[in-house]
Write a structure and sequence with these properties.
This protein is an alpha/beta fold. It contains 14 helices and 13 strands. Strand 7, helix 7 and strand 8 form a beta-alpha-beta unit.
Length: about 375
């Protein structure tokens, strides 16, 4: 399981430059990693994880298969999108299908690049998009609640629950707050997700800064970070210009370029990691002579559910999971030595998979 992140932003903020860098980087990885461009505005990129390379080295794996992340370049956002301005309707439909929103904000000054509003203010830009999403949600909520009236009169339990949750979302939005600020009981969590409201999506603010500010950011990105923290969202600093240059270099050249720029890693790696943290995702591994592979799961996933990510039959016929912690696998030199040292555990259906676990599933066919 990977996850899908929609890249949004006003015109001329660097959104398409960033997406193009992502897809070019992914294309360069295609010789070693699974990659596909699903549509012109959708691309998949390997999730960087040094642990996978280490495991493959120890196990002598012939193939390395990382987990993947899907990026969607969502076009057409302008003020009035909620009313169909620009490509508003398509924009709203595309964003509903994503797990999270990467909101690219212009945090650089450049007189040659015109801002759609005639000023550089990333916090105001964020508010523009938030407002459009809230207006779209509000219109959707009002229509849906009107359509539930007859079922509620008939005492339909699902309709009553849905209306109650929509009312909570409506109250928050009318108070100027996105629906994700609503506190939902665990019993309502599934029904809440099924509403697919735009403003329930977690947001990662991507501060697009100039080349010289890529390491530390600037005053504009600091304001975004402050806003994100107040909202309970995340922010990451990236120079789309640098990412575009890196995407056209060979791996060794890219590493030298990053060093010259005073950067430890590419901004895209930070973006992916921040997305994982935002969605509370983690990684487990399956390792053998044939392949070393990474799998993405939600934090708190049980062993049978984790097995089901590989194949539904693994979950249905789950017997147990043979588990080795990543550090034990590496420090002891592989599966055999870890087993001899008593570091391989046999875990049942109630086991919660931990980030970095090296797993082997046993199941009935």
């Amino acid at each position: 399981m990977g996850f899908k992140m929609g890249i949004v932003g006003l015109p001329n903020v660097g959104k398409s430059t960033l997406f193009n860098a992502l897809t070019r980087t992914a294309a360069a990885q295609a010789a070693n990693f699974p990659f596909c461009t699903i549509e012109p505005n959708v691309g998949e990129v390997a999730v960087p994880d040094a642990r996978l390379d280490k495991l493959a080295e120890i196990a002598g794996s012939k193939q390395i298969i990382p987990t993947r992340m899907t990026f969607v370049d969502i076009a057409g956002l302008v003020k009035g999108a909620s009313k169909g301005e620009g490509l508003g309707n398509q924009f709203l439909a595309n964003i509903r299908e994503t797990d999270a929103i990467a909101h690219v904000l212009r945090c650089f000054e450049d007189s040659d690049v015109t801002h759609v509003e005639g000023r550089v203010d990333p916090v105001a830009d964020a508010e523009t998009i938030d407002t459009e999403l809230m207006l779209a949600d509000l219109e959707s909520i009002e229509k849906r609640r009107a359509g539930l009236v007859r079922k509620i009169k008939g005492n339909d339990k699902d309709a009553i629950q849905q209306d109650r949750l929509l009312a909570l979302a409506q109250a928050a939005i009318e108070d100027g707050q996105p629906a994700r600020t609503v506190k939902i009981d665990e019993d309502d969590a599934k029904a809440w997700r099924m509403l697919q409201l735009l403003t329930t999506k977690p947001v990662l603010y991507v501060c697009n800064v100039g080349e010289s500010e890529a390491a530390e950011g600037n005053a504009l990105s600091a304001k975004v970070a402050e806003m994100a923290a107040a909202q309970g969202n995340s922010a990451v600093i990236i120079s789309a210009q640098i990412e575009e240059e890196i995407s056209q270099l060979e791996a060794d050249e890219a590493e030298m370029f990053l060093t010259e720029m005073g950067l430890d890693e590419a901004g895209l790696d930070r973006l992916i990691r921040a997305g994982y943290e935002l969605l509370h995702l983690e990684t487990y591994f399956t390792v053998g002579p044939k392949e070393a592979r990474a799998w993405t799961i939600k934090q708190g996933t049980s062993a049978p559910k984790a097995a089901g990510v590989i194949h539904g039959d693994f979950e249905k016929g789950f017997i147990r999971a043979e588990t080795i912690a990543y550090d034990d696998f590496v420090n002891l030199g592989g599966e055999g030595p870890a087993k001899e040292a008593g570091k391989m555990r046999s875990e049942g259906k109630s086991y919660t998979v931990k980030d970095g676990d090296v797993l082997h599933f046993l199941f009935n066919t």
